[in-house]
Amino acid sequence: MRSRFLLFSALLGALLAGPATAQSLATRQALDTLRAAYHLPALAAAIIQPAAIGYLGGGVRHNDQPEEIALNDYFHLGSESKGVTSLLAGKLVEGGKIKWKSKLVDVVPELKDKVRPEYADITLDRLLSHRAGIQPYITGVEHKVLPKLTGTVSERRLQFAAFVLQQPPVSPAKGRTYAYSNAGYVLAALMLERASGSSWEQQVATAFGELKLRYLIGFPNRHDEHQPWGHRMQATGGGDSVLAPLGPASRYQGYDYMAPAMELSMPLPDFARLVQLHLQGLLGQDNYLKSSTYQTIHFGKPSYAYGWVVAGSAS
């Protein structure tokens, strides 16, 4: 699904107030060059240090109008939502509500008789690190064969899990140690819901309320059409393609039960602050989580740990 859409969303913002430095101007020029070269509606970056955050960037909210992005606009995070789900998992592990090695069928026992034998022993850490062999669910085609899901979003996650766990497992591609799966994060979120007694949505609200971070679930322009829009590649008929904006009423809707894998939106300052907490934790500082938990989240597995790629790894 996300591979078919270019949702230029997470790292967008405006220049901080204050005198520009040569470094900031050079960075701004580099971003503008990239934005022009790839015909992006907007492009920006957060420069994150343990005690400071800076922002650079520019562009428009969608490429068929001149309205410029603003620092506090909400942008779709896509798969960065997985890092938030892993943050919630770390909090529950610290609180003794669940373990990294907890088995799915132990935490959600009604699935025990509905899983293929290959999935009988999958654990929270394997789901969060894409090592459970779960089908990927990265295209809309996979969702078209699902049975009708009903009830609350948590009930639909359970129904989704029962279906997915009857599908054959997948193996990592040659040379890789994990097989990327959006569906695996839905199963992990289901475990967190059972362990906490709260829906994934309620857990995000609690965590981000404590951290004073703003967020939305779903595409920002579904909440306010003046927020940034996603874009997709669209063929022009002459062998070329252009970026076409996805308006609030576009056919592409997203799937709310998949939110733990892909559906959070945040303003850049809030997302940057969240990343800063991770940076501080990796440097030895306890904050929302213990430093040791951040180490596990980022480096608990090679190549891809819990919601985060391990930098410098090719597999």
For the biggest sheet, the summary is: 3 strands, antiparallel
Helices and strands: which structural class? alpha+beta
Give the topology string: H per helix, E per strand: EHEEEHHHHHHHEHEEHEHH
Shape: globular
Radius of gyration: 20 Å
| Tally of helical runs | 12
Average pLDDT? 90
Q: What distance separates the N and C termini?
A: 22 Å
Count every beta strand, where a strand is a DSSP E run of 2 or more residues: 8
Low-pLDDT stretches are 1-20
Strand order of the largest sheet: 1-6-7
Word description of this protein:
A hairpin with a 2-residue loop joins strand 2 (42-49) and strand 3. Mean pLDDT is 90; it is low at 1-20. It contains 12 helices and 8 strands. The chain has helices spanning 22-37, 81-94, 104-107, 124-128, 140-144, 153-164, 182-196, 200-211, 220-223, 259-262, 268-282, 291-299, and strands spanning 5-6, 42-49, 52-59, 74-76, 216-217, 230-235, 241-246, 264-267. The chain has 2 domains: 2-79 and 214-246 and 264-294, no CATH class; 82-202, DD-peptidase/beta-lactamase superfamily (Beta-lactamase, 3-Layer(aba) Sandwich), CATH 3.40.710. A 3-stranded antiparallel β-sheet has the order 1-6-7, with no helix packed on it. Strands 4-8-5 form a 3-stranded antiparallel β-sheet. It is of the alpha+beta class. 37% of the residues are buried. It is globular, with a radius of gyration of 20 Å.
